[in-house]
Amino acid sequence: MQISELPLSGPWGERHLLGLERLTAAQLTTVLDLAEELERATAGGSERLSTLKGLVVANLFFENSTRTRTSFSLAARRLGADTVDFSASSSSLSKGETFIDTALTIEAMGVDLVVCRHKTPGAPHLLSRHLRAGVLNAGDGTHEHPTQGLLDIYTIRRHRGRIAGLTVALVGDIRHSRVARSNIHGLVKLGARVIVCGPSTLVPTEIRQLGVEVAWNLDEILPEVDCVNLLRVQFERQRGAFFPSIAEYAELFGMNAERIRRARKDLLVLAPGPINRGVELTPDVADGPNSVILDQVSNGLLIRMACLSLLARERRAGSGGAA
Ligand code: NCD
User: Which residue in 22, 77, 184, 230 has a CA-CA distance of 20 to 30 Å to 260?
Assistant: First the structure.
């Protein structure tokens, strides 16, 4: 099946997916609608399509990943692409080759789309200026993680049927979270009310400029919240101690059975993962009826298929090939 057979409507026109900040609500909706169409057309993603047949997708991961890397690889293969997996630790980077030279070398093997994760904010943007290939940001430091934002939003839309008018709380390490930033840009554009909540040291008040409300007390906001997205404390990105102890963090900001009892009965509990059981949420909440954490993982595959399809179309159009 070709992508043109899917009833794809709505604007796109982007060669790269670097973040949700500069996408319009209409472009975001194009991705979400295409993911939904792919869900219908592929019985949840397990059927193979030929949308990316003849194209090569390279995964360039300079930071660890379980979900994102696996689901980008699987998504590319489900769409009929050849895939190349690059791992920084076993590459010639250790021999002194630069980031750009590494990427140019891989591109020279005929790569059409590059999926890049890097600890430095802006690394995929830099690649997009040096490569002819389309670039997808799979997480750049503390900056953005657009496909995670999209899959979180998609999961909410699948469960609630809409985004506009919902109240979504992003709880945790807002300061260091690229997932928070991509969620904020997407959710605000699509008309949600977004509240960010966490220890004051991890929630910069300037974040209000992005159109969100700031709260320090989870128990105060919880009764108003439709969806809560529990963000991992990004210890690996922190310099210094931002709160006294993990136990205290869990006590004040962790989701547990008691908080679930005081929340809306149909509260959706999301977490991008990896989850730390007993910190951001207790095991009974992670595995309980309000949790949609594994749906997020499944939906990640659909969202990545949708994003790869859209960029493949631009790539083929740009290189004079058939869409
Ligand atoms: C997130 C990431 O890498 O930013 N994980 C993911 O992609 N599912 C969140 C995190 O690591 O906490």
Answer: 184
Q: Is 254 in the pocket of ligand 1 (CB under 6 A)?
A: no
| Per-residue pLDDT, 322 | 41
Q: Model's pTM, two decimal places?
A: 0.95
Taken in order 217, 289, 224, 263, is the CA torsion positive or negative?
Answer: negative
The DSSP line for 1-20 is --GGGS---S----S-B--S
Ligand 1 atom nearest to CA at 177 = 4
**pLDDT for the residue 320:** 47
Q: Which of 1, 72, 11 is nearest to 40 (CA)?
A: 1
- Asked whether the predicted pLDDT for residue 7 surpasses 70, the reply is no
Is the pLDDT score of 321 beyond 50?
A: no
Asked if residue 139 lies in contact with residue 66, where contact means CB atoms within 8 angstroms, the answer is: no
95 given a catalytic annotation = yes
From 62, 137, 145, 270, the mutation candidate for ligand 1 (largest count of ligand atoms within 8 A of CB) is: 145
Cα pseudo-dihedral 144, 149, 151, 154, rounded to 10: -160
Q: What's the DSSP call for residue 232?
A: P
Residue 119 annotated as catalytic: no
**Domains, the chain, ranges and CATH?**
3-144+299-318 (3.40.50.1370), 146-297 (3.40.50.1370)
CA 272 to ligand 1: nearest atom: 8
Residue 1: pLDDT band with limits 50, 70, 90: low
Which residues, 6+ apart, have CB-to-CB distance to 323 below 8 Å?
A: 3, 4, 313, 316, 317
Three-state DSSP at 227 gives strand
User: Is 53 assigned a catalytic role?
Assistant: no
Rounded Cα distance between 233 and 307, Å, is: 28
In order of 218, 269, 270, the CA distances from 255 in angstroms are: 9, 9, 11
For 204-234, write each residue's pLDDT tens digit. Answer: 999 999 999 999 999 999 999 999 999 998 8
